[in-house]
Amino acid sequence: MSTTWTKTRIPIDGGKIKEAMFGEKIPLHMKNWVLAMGTTPFILFPLQIITGILLALYFVPSVEMAYESVRHISQDIRYGFWIRGIHHWGANLMVISLFLHMMRVFFTHSYRKPREINWVFGFLLLSLTLTISFTGYSLTYNQVSYWAATVGTNLVKEIPLIGGFVLSLLRGSEGVTAHTLTRFYTLHVWILPVVISLIIGAHIFLVRSHGVSEPDGFEKGHYDFYPGHFYKIIVVTLFLISLLSLLSVVLPPGLGEQADPANTPLHIKPEWYFFPVFLILRFVPLQLGLAITGLAIVLMIFWPFIEPMLSKKKKSRTVIANIIGCIAIVILITLTIFEAFSII
User: What are all long-range contacts of 152-157, with beta carbons under 8 Å and residues at least 24 apart?
Assistant: First the structure.
């Protein structure tokens, strides 16, 4: 087969590929990694995929073997504790980095026209990351994860109109059973990673289409993606792998007690990123708590379209948005800390 024939049908131009990958101009403010936090979950997600595949080689998604397979990975498989630890802490860091990235976007008002849709995609990514973390947490099938899954799915049925259908779809039965574990495994391993990958692709496409936003108050100008920003990504990747490895050794994820559907623990708590919602639902009537949570979610999703209605003056809208953002952060942090130290 001639080279000409191949190039005609697969016209790969190395120069154009390099230009597309490494020729992008980056705003100067992104030299500060705090302002470029969106790259961190982009680095962590492939690590989650790789470690997840390695864990799936030994994990058995059945009520009889799920807990034992996790124990086997953690205690018997060479480097199994390390892989599981990276996967566990990687999920936590993904949630943290996404929160920080959305805070940066919110307070620099980078969600404004014409980037409203990209804000929506970002919020969907955060929501899907929380969902995939919840399903993965439930797969360990210990007492805490089993009952957290029970409580979490019970809340779903309170959703107006579609709650019963969604609950049946998630559980596959009346309670959390083998059907539920299989469905959570399917969501965690197949469906959610594919959906997240597609939304990341759409998110990046829109970023490249509109260009990276340049917030007010920062030095204007650009620098080349390669080598400056590319080398920074390599350094941050190595730092994240080192940090995850350290956490895996110093604070390895525990096993807990094997799930016992007949024995309800006295205190059931979800993972820390659900603490604010969990605390609200403990102290207010269920329907009211869900309404508050749902309203907050709707406001955040459509905030880029709501903000222009607050005032015709851009400066006034900026002040209002900053005040609302600060109040929201204080509430979230306060509720998280309160629940973290609560013994109830």
Answer: 152/270, 153/180, 155/281, 155/286, 155/290
